[in-house]
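Appendix B, example 12.
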Amino acid sequence: MQMSGGEQQRVAIARAFASKPSILFADEPTGNLDTRTGTHIVDLLFELNREENTTLILVTHDQSLADRCERCLCLDAGALVPEPAGGEY
């Protein structure tokens, strides 16, 4: 039996939260998923983040995903880009 990409991501998230980490890193968590499945995965990540009170650090090129985060830091060629006055990139 083979799992779909979304099922694999759900298992990976469950495994990551099972150890009750204080910080969880997610590198392009929706990178290889269709839009609908990606939305479900992101919703699950943020739901578990709230429930478990875990610091969630996301790496993404997806601006809509970045917009859901409390704080964003932007890198350009490996250097931190100063945050704009309004706080949004």
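Helices lie at 5-18, 35-52, 63-67. The longest strand covers residues 23-27.
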